[in-house]
Design goal:
Blueprint: E1 2-7, H1 11-22, E2 27-30, H2 39-42, H3 57-81, E3 92-95, H4 100-110, E4 115-117, H5 119-125, E5 136-139, H6 147-159, E6 164-167, E7 172-178, E8 181-187, E9 190-199, H7 205-209, E10 219-229, E11 238-241, E12 244-248, E13 253-257, H8 271-284, E14 293-303, E15 310-314, E16 317-324, H9 330-346, H10 361-364
Parallel strand pairs: 1-2, 1-9, 2-6, 3-11, 9-16
Antiparallel strand pairs: 3-5, 4-5, 7-8, 8-9, 10-13, 10-14, 11-12, 12-13, 15-16
Length: about 375
């Protein structure tokens, strides 16, 4: 019997498994599809909330810790697997910021490097970027990661560990209980028993917990993105304008995102979103008007009240933990949220105060 059973193989689930394995635990991870292929694959990989000063302290605390963890994690995975997550720390240019005073106040309070810059500065950093029509800000420390490769590296590392078992293409069909305590899960590939359980199912977490009659207020929120295959070097760093962004990869791929759509579990793409994303891309980098769109896809974010994830044990099932509801910031918050969850599972001193994230009866009752 495995010590721990993780339900969900996205970045949150895989980082949880890796941290538990580092602590000497035996872990089984069950994934309904292929590890790292849902929201973890579909996002942009910016290692910060888009406008971090607009978030409350619970999200900000996790974000600040995670941002510092990514450089080391990326180097570790590259050395262990030979797969480069392509962590890039080239900063972010914010164009047309209408609450720049609030942003600068936030940065001063935290000692973060953030400055108001001129159009000439923007042109020097990114010659192809549009001239800002309003205030522009520069954050030199912001990084990004190539999230599909991060997922590949995490999966490869877990697959190489003798005390980790990955079970993919496996649906969870219900929980097994004995005298009111969860002892296992029924799956499409047979029963799996364990001592402790961690639900990391992203947008599907609520449906997984339906099997325990637990209502988790996490819902799917669709996001469509596009990518251009541009000449390498056309854009060097993340550029954000009016809520949309361009993210460069080292091989010239330029990601543009993203939409926010309440569409249930529908992941289809449409021409209206494509046109909107193209307009945004060309408003940020006008030269993209001459480049064809190479890819167009959609993913499902795990939306939650105020974007604050649920991290901790369920009130009525103390051996069942949840780590879900990161909304737009799954990759951003993953290192800290998984560390905090593992602290609770193993009874260690927590990374930070877990109270705001606990799946209490009050939080579970949120609309």
């Amino acid at each position: 019997m495995s010590n721990l059973l993780i339900l969900g193989g996205g970045v949150i689930g895989m980082m949880t498994a890796l941290q538990l394995a580092d602590a000497g635990q035996r872990v089984t991870l069950i994934e309904r599809g292929t590890c790292g292929k849902e929201a973890s694959w579909a996002g942009g990989g910016i290692v910060s909330p888009l406008y971090p000063w607009r978030y409350g302290e619970p999200v900000s605390q996790l974000s600040r810790w995670s941002e510092g963890a990514y450089p080391t994690l990326a180097l570790r995975l590259l050395e262990e697997t030979g797969i480069d997550p392509e962590y890039r720390q080239k900063g972010l240019l914010y164009l047309n910021v209408d609450d720049d005073e609030a942003a600068l106040h936030w940065a001063r309070q935290l000692g973060k490097p953030l400055e108001r810059v001129t159009a000439a500065f923007v042109h020097h950093k990114e010659p192809e970027a549009a001239t800002p029509e309003g205030s522009a800000l520069w954050m030199p420390t912001l990084g990004s990661v190539r999230n599909p490769r991060l997922g590949q590296a995490l999966r490869a590392r877990l697959a190489a560990l003798s005390h980790v078992t990955l079970i993919e293409a496996c649906r969870v069909e219900g929980f097994l209980q004995r005298q009111g305590r969860v002892v296992g899960v029924a799956t499409s590939r047979g029963d799996q028993l364990a001592e402790q359980f961690i639900v990391c199912g992203g947008a599907w977490s609520a449906s997984v917990l339906d099997g325990l009659n637990v209502r988790l207020p996490v819902r799917p929120v669709k996001g469509q993105m596009i990518a251009y295959q541009a000449p390498p070097g056309l854009v060097q760093r993340v550029v954000l304008k009016d809520g949309r962004y361009v993210i460069p990869r080292s091989d010239g791929l330029l990601l543009v995102g993203s939409t926010l759509e309440e569409a249930g579990f529908d992941k289809t793409t449409d021409e209206e979103a494509l046109a909107s994303l193209k307009r945004s891309a060309e408003n940020i980098i006008p030269a993209l008007a001459d480049c064809p769109v190479a890819y167009h896809w959609a993913g499902l974010r795990p939306g939650s009240p105020e974007g604050i994830p649920f991290i901790g044990a369920l009130p009525e099932f103390p051996n069942v933990f949840v780590n879900a509801g990161h909304y737009r910031n799954g990759l951003v918050l993953a290192p800290a949220s998984t560390h905090l969850l593992v602290d609770q599972v193993l009874g260690r001193k927590p990374l930070l105060d877990p109270t705001p994230y606990q799946p209490t009866a009050e939080r579970l009752a949120w609309p």
